[in-house]
Amino acid sequence: MNHMSKVNTDSDNLRHLPGPSLRTRPVRVEDYLFNREVSQVEFFRRVLEEALDESQPLLERLKFLAIFSSNVDEFFMIRVSALKEAMEEDVHALSPDGLTPGEQLAKIRELLVPLVAEHGRCLQEDVIPRLKANGIEISAYDALSDQERNALDEYFRENVFPVLTPQAVDPSHPFPYISNQSLNLGLMVQEDERPDADISSQMQAEPRFVRIKVPPLVPRMVAVPGTQAKFVLLGELIKANLNSLFPGMSPSEAYTFRLTRDADIDIREDEADDLLHTLQEQLRRRRFGTPVRLEVSSAMPDELVQYLSESIGLAPDEVYTIDGPLNVPDLMALYDLPRADLKDKPLPILMPDAFRHGSEIFEAIKEHDLLLHHPYVSYTSITDLIAVAANDPLVVAIKICVYRTGGDSPILPALIQASEQGKQVTVLIELKARFDEEKNIEWATRLERAGIHVVYGVMGLKTHCKLALIIRREGERLQRYVHIATGNYNPTTSTTYTDLGLLTANEDIGADATELFNYLTGYSRQNQYQELLVAPVNLRDRMTALIEREIEHQRAGRPARIIGKINRIADTRIIGKFYEASQAGVPTDLIVRGICMLRPGIPGLSETITVRSIVGRFLEHSRVFYFANGGEDEVYVGSSDLMPRNLNRRVEVLSQVHDARLKTYLRDVVLETYLRDNVKARQLRPDGSYEKIPVAADEPRINSQVDFAATIGKLFEATSSS
């Protein structure tokens, strides 16, 4: 798997960054930018802080511990694997902040080791004991009563023993293949001594290493029969029954370990005759990726750790010692327990009146644009819209871009239904959506069998935009309705992500959407759009021009301000433009969930820029851009972050919001609430650390994600007819 493009400096490099003003000292490379990988690890730290927060409900704390683990897993599978490959291939290119791949790997480990230790301490010493005090227990096998152990042993014999396959290492059996993210037990097994054994038999009786893969299709949390909420980890149950696996043998104590492999996929589309088939082949190879991390139980003896790491081919600094369960997301089975007292209180989920009356929704959209703010507005508003369009006899065509579908999305069955009713349905499904490839392949196959026109996008680009176009015959003309969103057409994630969706019948936006779908399906080379900002066609240039326009307004004494809410910013050319704006005095407030390579608050360079990150009960996913524009402010929403991949190698869409009421809601309610958040917000300091927002004793506490539920009525006021 070739990841060089992920670690080399892109065409966006330091020549795009402005120098500091003359009144400051010379600025070194590292003074301009934060390291991308370090910034990502700092995001993991903010997630962990939510788990450490004792004011959080217990099961929510467990959720954040699981999220931390999942985030770190993906980081190793994608980013660390790319750096490791670059170092092994002796790639000398530096990161934009001037570090070699080896230096970045060393820095990552330096930061992650204490975070992983704190994660384990929080789980073992805080969350698990508190859960037990609240009636939810993860018990040690030895702490159970005889009756409970007997019941679990019976469960083991019937449900676990038949699917276990111990793999011993001996001269005829090499060290076994360890699949990516599998949970394993490692132990030494020796034949029992026999009095009549000869020397040859005694030599054969030397201890052998045995690997037992914990079966992935058996629940990892085994409920203790006869109890309400007492569980034993599956690995612990297997350990307790080792003797049944090795009759006539003496097994040692077993220790858990887990391996992470390179899981990225690199496809040369110009060499792929059949993209779907090629991707299926790559997915089969994913499990054989290069090892990048070995996690071992803190109880594992040093000699066994050394044996495992050398057998797998990892250096000592690629081994992470874990105190407690090695796959914390397994514990999320506890979150499904009916314990509302240990979870966040549900927020009210609303449905706009316009969506309650079938095809009247089209009349409402035509009357004025609508804005949907998820999860505070039910995502069934979108699934219902697609279902209404599928059954509306006046709808003649539906076109949609699908990035992450989810396993049980009602949207794609509705599209199949629309096709069966004779409507022209086109679905652009992104097969290369990372870790959703298999689901998307399955859906692509089902859609094609239903007669739907399925396309996979433009060669060499990943289609990341969230866009739907519904074409309806109204009288003598065709009317286009467009949905432009910040989030995927995935009802499952819509309950845990904050996202925005714009519904419009604007003719120019509709015409642009038509041109864009023609471009995506391969019938157009459109490079001009009236309304939409489309990457990689015009989004970079338009975004640059918008920032430059604020600079001009600031210099002319007109109102100038930039507010950007995004997930990541790592494009050095855009960062350079923000620095230019700051040097001109433009107030710039950035709300960046994760990676931020821009350094705020540097005198003479970025002193008018603030950066904050908000990590709370929902994953911040919406992208919004505000420009004061001399008093005639403009607001844009859409799918794009400010990363080289978004601007250069993905199809992204941003749209201007024209409705004055919706602009007011986005500026005064959404963005300003995020900027006033003093509960979940963290401010990025010039040294790269994040600090909590200071709050005076008499100052009201503002938790943006919760407060939106109370202010959502302002959105309905904005979208109601005059």
Describe this structure in words.
This protein is α/β, with parallel strands linked by helices. Helices cover 37% and strands 20% of the residues. The protein is built from 22 helices and 28 strands. Strands 15, 19, 20, 21, 22, 24, 25, 26, 27 and 28 form a ten-stranded mixed beta sheet that branches. Strand 20, helix 18 and strand 21 form a beta-alpha-beta unit. Helix 20 packs antiparallel against helix 21. It is globular. The N and C termini lie far apart (57 Å). About 3% of the residues have low confidence.
* Beginning-to-end CA distance, first to last residue: 57 Å
What structural class is derived from the secondary structure elements? alpha/beta
Helix content: 25-40%
Please tell me the overall pLDDT. 88
Assembly state here? single chain
**Radius of gyration using CA atoms only:** 28 Å
Helix segment tally: 22
Main sheet overview:
10 strands, mixed
Give the DSSP E fraction (strand runs of 2 or more residues).
15-25%
Query: Could you tell me the number of beta strands?
Result: 28
Overall geometric form: globular
Low-confidence stretches: 8-13, 22-27, 267-276
List the main descriptive attributes of the protein structure presented here.
eight-stranded mixed beta sheet; alpha/beta; 28 strands; ten-stranded mixed beta sheet; 722 residues
What is this structure's SSE topology?
Layout: H1 4-7, H2 29-32, H3 36-52, H4 58-88, H5 101-133, E1 137-138, H6 146-160, E2 167-168, E3 183-191, H7 199-204, E4 208-213, E5 221-223, E6 230-233, H8 234-240, H9 242-245, E7 249-251, E8 255-261, H10 275-286, E9 291-297, H11 302-312, E10 319-322, H12 360-367, E11 370-374, H13 380-391, E12 395-402, H14 411-420, E13 424-429, H15 437-449, E14 453-455, E15 462-463, E16 466-474, E17 477-485, E18 497-504, H16 507-520, E19 533-535, H17 539-555, E20 562-566, H18 572-583, E21 588-592, E22 609-614, E23 619-620, E24 623-627, E25 634-638, H19 644-648, E26 650-657, H20 660-676, E27 681-684, E28 690-692, H21 704-711, H22 713-719
Parallel strand pairs: 1-6, 9-10, 12-13, 13-14, 15-26, 18-23, 20-21, 21-22
Antiparallel strand pairs: 2-4, 3-4, 3-7, 3-8, 5-6, 8-9, 11-18, 12-16, 16-17, 17-18, 19-26, 20-24, 22-27, 24-25, 25-26, 27-28
